Write a sequence for this structure.
């Protein structure tokens, strides 16, 4: 029977291991400090919790094992009741300071900030640290192939407290361990990889630290999108062809076309809500939906034209292209429509030429300034309604500390040293104008590290997420530009004691990750001074970092503006739907309903800002007004058409003249094209009766030219005023679109 360890034995063991005279957790646990300490790193992936396709934010759960040998944490198990494995208390041992970079909340954060890690130690000095948690990062989003999109994600862990000359990372395997991975219904993971890299950047002043880069690919499972969004749109679009088989004279052609159009507007609007809002890499699917909307808009316009044409009783053959005439003749089987005994000679000749056929279709010595450099990494979030901006980045502060110097020859040649947090003087940098904490020290959040050289040059790097408010101007939406400022002040010293120097007048954006909705330009950094009542006339130095945010407008134009413009253009086409066809009102109301639905969806995307209202909202208001008038106009026209007699004295003179001119033109007999006439003669039997009828028709036409009109019916007036309305609406919409475009372009170019 094995004897268990007693409380005294374990307590003696801990006292032996963590005796302050023999163990210092700030130093690497190896005797020869010139040697490398080897650390093994293994990553395990458990699940994908969330992936925001618009921002690229991904949250995963997993854990990793860090294994190394501590030469000072060894013992003889026989002296301590046979105890061979010991769980170590948190914060008692040396451990590599593993930092996860590129996080979204704390851009660079030590994994030990949470309590979800355990450490085990064997009597030989082998330490195994296991950390489990939720990790955030940002992926490289590429939505061009949506819903077959693929995204590359990286988790980068660096050891921030040691250089590559002091510590080396080893990977037992080149992949992530995914044996315990729980499947995600929307995404699956492939192409996992783990590699050891080195970071050597300007911010570390040529100090290289080891890093583990864990990467994988996220692929979308496309079945849901295909089955429930893509296929229904394709099916509805295919029905656009079927409208050609609805006869124009059936009274249902326009009803089918416009109802199908309304259905497609609903379906494409729902689809656009699912498509990632990313104008940097626009999905091909959004272009496809735009083309589908365009084709269907043209289809409705074509149906209007066909129905209108089918109701024209007489067509001047000289206005018809010859190839169409030939097709018409071929459809007649090379023969003229059969001549019967009409009620008049005019009807007889018309019958010989027309048939009802369907047409297809950021030094203590004040003399030595403090260097301040700001680096911008990414735009995390921008609330257009409040102007609240969240960005990630870091700033580098450098100065000379005259008391932190040493002779490297007295300390084994050590020239560069990482300084423990809170052990040295530093300027108290405060970020003002934050939305949550109006003024707060930057050291209260994020992560910072400091390095000092043997001659006293200190470099402090602070990495974090910064909040501010921008000056919002949405008048040019979706071409809007917003001006943002980050103001850092040194709150513990006056300008007579401390001076800030900026090596460059701009922010460093070389490492800026592109945002799918916004891009940054006009970056600037300047040194200023703050003198306010709250400081009692004490002036402190300040750094003002400014930049402009510009929207990428492609997504808004393709998926919101263009469809509304196409639908608005159809309002003009209602004038070509004959009032007596029985479809004028149903077409106008259904088109109005489609536009109301589309503009309502568009208004949801427009920034809610009444201080500077977007021009686009005015344009949508005018479009709705025009379409409302259009419906009322159609009601008036249909009513007017049913008036059989109108007193000429009640009609404006210019309308009356247009009516008379139109009536006179309509009384002419359709001229026969000589070429067509020749073909007709060849195909028609020559008989004396036809020739006699033609002579009689000519005499009749001469008589009709002199007809004096005594009575005017409502249909004649309706046709004329409808054309006047058509040109008024056409000019209004053209001026509206042109004015909006010109204003936006001019202000955009000026900005």
């Amino acid at each position: 029977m094995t004897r268990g360890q007693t409380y005294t034995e374990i307590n003696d063991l801990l006292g032996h291991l963590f005796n302050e005279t023999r163990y210092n957790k700030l130093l690497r646990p190896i005797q020869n400090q010139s040697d490398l300490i080897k650390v093994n790193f293994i990553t395990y992936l458990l699940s994908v919790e969330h992936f925001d396709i618009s921002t690229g934010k991904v949250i995963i759960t997993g854990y990793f094992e860090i294994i190394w040998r501590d030469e000072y944490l060894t013992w003889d198990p026989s002296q301590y009741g046979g105890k061979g494995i010991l769980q170590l208390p948190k914060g008692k041992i040396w451990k590599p300071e593993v930092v996860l970079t590129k996080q979204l909340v704390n851009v660079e954060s030590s994994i030990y900030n949470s309590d979800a890690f355990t450490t085990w130690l064997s009597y030989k000095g082998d330490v195994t640290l296991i950390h489990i948690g939720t990790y955030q990062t940002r992926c490289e989003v590429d939505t061009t192939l949506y819903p077959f999109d693929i995204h590359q994600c990286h988790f980068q862990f660096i050891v921030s407290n040691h250089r590559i000359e002091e510590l080396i990372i080893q990977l037992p395997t080149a992949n992530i361990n995914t044996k315990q991975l729980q499947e995600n219904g929307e995404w699956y993971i492939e192409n996992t990889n783990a590699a050891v890299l080195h970071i050597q950047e300007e911010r570390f002043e040529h100090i290289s630290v080891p890093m583990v880069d864990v990467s994988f690919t996220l692929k979308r499972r496309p079945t849901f999108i295909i089955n429930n969004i893509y296929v229904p749109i394709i099916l509805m679009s295919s029905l656009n062809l079927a409208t050609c088989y609805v006869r124009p004279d059936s009274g249902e052609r326009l009803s089918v076309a416009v109802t199908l159009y309304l259905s497609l507007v609903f379906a494409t609007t729902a689809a656009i809500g699912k498509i990632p809002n990313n104008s940097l890499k626009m999905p091909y699917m959004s272009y496809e939906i735009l083309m589908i909307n365009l084709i269907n808009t043209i289809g409705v316009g074509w149906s209007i034209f066909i129905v209108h044409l089918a109701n024209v009783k007489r067509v001047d053959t000289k206005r018809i292209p010859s190839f169409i005439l030939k097709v018409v003749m071929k459809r007649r089987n090379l023969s003229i429509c059969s001549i019967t005994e009409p009620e008049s000679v005019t009807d007889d000749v018309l019958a010989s030429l027309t048939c009802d056929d369907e047409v297809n279709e950021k030094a203590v010595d004040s003399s030595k300034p403090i260097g301040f450099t700001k680096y911008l990494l990414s735009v995390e979030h921008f609330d257009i309604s409040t102007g609240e901006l969240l960005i990630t980045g870091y700033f580098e502060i450098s100065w000379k500390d005259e008391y932190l110097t040493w002779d490297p020859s007295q300390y084994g040649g050590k020239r560069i040293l990482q300084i423990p947090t809170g052990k040295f003087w530093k300027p108290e940098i405060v970020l003002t104008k934050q939305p949550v904490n109006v003024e707060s020290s930057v050291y209260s959040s994020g992560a910072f590290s400091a390095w000092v050289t043997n001659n006293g040059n200190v470099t402090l790097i602070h990495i974090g997420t910064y909040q501010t408010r921008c000056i919002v101007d949405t008048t040019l939406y979706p071409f809007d530009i917003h001006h943002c400022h980050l103001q850092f002040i040194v709150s513990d010293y006056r300008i007579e004691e401390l001076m800030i120097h900026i090596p460059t007048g701009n922010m460093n954006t070389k490492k800026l990750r592109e945002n799918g909705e916004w891009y940054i330009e006009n970056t600037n950094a300047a040194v200023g001074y703050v003198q306010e009542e709250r400081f009692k006339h004490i002036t402190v130095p300040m750094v003002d970092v400014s930049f402009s945010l510009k929207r990428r407008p492609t997504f808004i134009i393709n998926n919101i503006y263009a469809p509304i413009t196409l639908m608005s253009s159809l309002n003009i086409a209602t004038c070509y739907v004959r009032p007596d066809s029985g479809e004028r009102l149903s077409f106008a109301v259904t088109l109005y309903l489609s536009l109301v639905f589309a503009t309502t969806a568009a208004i949801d995307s427009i920034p809610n800002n009444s201080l500077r209202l977007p021009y686009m909202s005015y344009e949508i208001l005018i479009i709705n007004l025009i379409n409302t008038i259009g419906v009322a106009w159609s009601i008036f026209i249909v009513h007017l058409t049913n008036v059989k007699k109108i007193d000429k004295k009640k009609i404006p003179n210019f309308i009356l003249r247009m009516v008379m001119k139109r009536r006179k033109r309509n009384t002419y007999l359709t001229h026969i094209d000589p070429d067509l006439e020749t073909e007709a003669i060849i195909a028609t039997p020559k008989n004396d009766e036809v020739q006699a009828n033609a002579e009689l028709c000519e005499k009749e036409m001469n008589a009709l030219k002199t007809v004096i009109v005594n009575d005017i019916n409502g249909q004649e007036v309706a046709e004329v005023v409808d054309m006047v309305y058509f040109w008024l609406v056409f000019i209004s919409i053209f001026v509206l679109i042109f004015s909006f475009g010109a204003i936006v372009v001019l202000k955009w170019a000026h900005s």
Residues 714-750 form the longest helix (37 residues). The chain has three domains: 7-221, 233-359+556-750, 370-553. Residues 233-359+556-750 form one domain.
